[in-house]
Design a protein that fits this description.
Chain lengths: 271, 163
């Protein structure tokens, strides 16, 4: 028994038609139970083309800086390695420096902007404490080296961490020229005095950093540090020419940390 | 080379296959070892013989749930789906929230929920030890959610995670 080419083509065409039509009909009659599941940003989420921050050092004094740091650490359960909940379990000072977790902290001018200092600097620069944090670079080296894509750049410019994926290899820490990333050498929970139960902690063995408060921005709030900074910190959209950050950048001379490295940091400083 | 069933070894051709005495060497040691091995392998069976492990009985009667009117006491999806697929749903939530910044879940009936473990699920099911741990202990799985996320129940860590 043989089959002619014409016959074969006819049969193949018919069965394809029947297969496709049958599937569609099946979907029509008995749609998949959970086809309608979907996801959306929160109702009040603020959106931007490019998030950025401007730190106005003219308005930032040590007290405000301390307030910003405290607000951030409270919001995100950042462990204070120097002050464990149980004081008997404190580390010796050299270990405290090694195990320290930094999201937002202060640096002297010559540490924050190495290469920019010279012998005859303006006097005030010697006394300034620069508030530094993750720069959420446009060309983030941490993202490029991450082997698991645990850290990634969002389309709106936030450099995010997916703690679920971090394997603790610390490549990103080697790649980041700003020291903005910290490794959890110890379980952080015994070092968190005041707990925010609405935000997770991290575990031993993952790297963490500032996330530009993505969880607050998605609720339409400002980052925690910006909120308490009395106008010293400004957070906004670089893609919007009318935004406050763009206004500040237009009106003032600003510097960025280690801009010569080409990571395109997006935290600007008005000195 | 054809040789009509005769046997050849390195010294030449033989009419018959050399006889090897059929003997069970070291019988005592071998049988004893086998018995010990069998006992060890089946030890968990013997140890639990006759014991009845109580079936999990997750409790749904938290204050937050009881405060809801009767008809609103539904989870984000129906019960059968949640029982079978809650782990997949949670992983989807995690990826959508962290990687795509989609923090709201719209369920199959079009209702919106905050896609969050600590701030979503645990707001109603605030009894982790009654709700999560019972089944997880029963089937011996230890999800590592609670290393980072807060279980808002003020109780000691579950048995599976204590190790």
């Amino acid at each position: 028994m043989s089959i002619k080419r014409r016959e074969f083509l006819r049969l193949a065409g018919l069965s394809t038609l029947f297969g496709l039509g049958g599937k569609a009909a099946f979907e029509l009659i008995a749609p998949g139970q959970l086809d309608a599941q979907s996801y959306a940003p929160e109702a009040h989420a603020t959106k931007a083309k490019r998030w950025a921050m401007v730190v106005d050092m003219r308005k930032l004094d040590d007290k405000t800086a301390a307030k910003c740091i405290q607000a951030c650490h409270l919001t995100h359960n950042v462990p204070d390695i120097a002050n464990p909940v149980n004081p008997a379990k404190a580390f010796p000072p050299e270990d405290q420096a090694r195990f320290r977790i930094k999201w937002i902290w202060t640096e002297d001018y010559h540490n924050a902007f190495p290469g920019e200092e010279h012998e005859n600097l303006q006097e005030k620069l010697h006394h300034m404490k620069f508030l530094v944090l993750c720069n959420h670079c446009d060309n983030p080296p941490c993202v490029r080296v991450c082997p698991t894509k645990a850290t990634f750049r969002r389309p709106d410019g936030m450099v995010m961490m997916d703690m679920h994926r971090c394997i603790g290899c610390r490549y990103c820490m080697a790649a980041c020229p700003f020291g903005a990333r910290s490794f959890n050498w110890k379980d952080p929970r015994p070092f968190i005095k005041d707990v925010n139960q609405n935000y997770p902690t991290r575990e031993i063995g993952v790297v963490e950093k500032c996330t530009f408060c993505d969880e607050r921005v998605s609720k339409g709030q400002l980052p925690a540090c910006v909120e308490v900074s009395n106008g010293a910190l400004t957070f906004g959209d670089l893609g919007d020419p009318k935004s406050k950050v763009r206004e500040l950048l237009r009106a003032n001379f600003t510097i960025r940390r280690k801009a010569h490295l080409g990571t395109l940091p997006q935290v600007y400083y008005i000195v | 080379m054809e040789n009509n069933g005769n046997y050849k070894n390195e010294f030449g051709w033989f009419a018959e296959k050399p006889q090897v005495p059929k003997k069970f060497y070291n019988a005592k040691t071998v049988v004893g070892g086998l018995v010990i091995f069998l006992i060890l392998v089946t030890a968990p069976l013997w140890r639990n013989l006759g014991k009845v492990v109580p079936a999990p009985d997750p409790q749904l009667n938290t204050q937050a749930i009881m405060a809801l009117p009767e008809k609103d006491r539904t989870c984000v999806e129906d019960k059968a789906y949640m029982q079978a697929y809650h782990m997949r749903l949670l992983v989807d939530w995690r990826d959508e929230v962290v990687r795509n910044a989609n923090r709201d879940y719209i369920n199959s009936k079009g209702k919106r929920y905050l896609a969050s473990l600590s701030n979503g699920c645990m707001e109603c099911h605030s009894n982790k030890s009654q709700f999560c741990d019972q089944c997880h202990n029963y089937v011996a799985v230890a999800p590592n959610c609670w290393g980072c996320h807060w279980e808002k129940e003020k109780k000691q860590v579950a048995q599976t995670e204590a190790k």
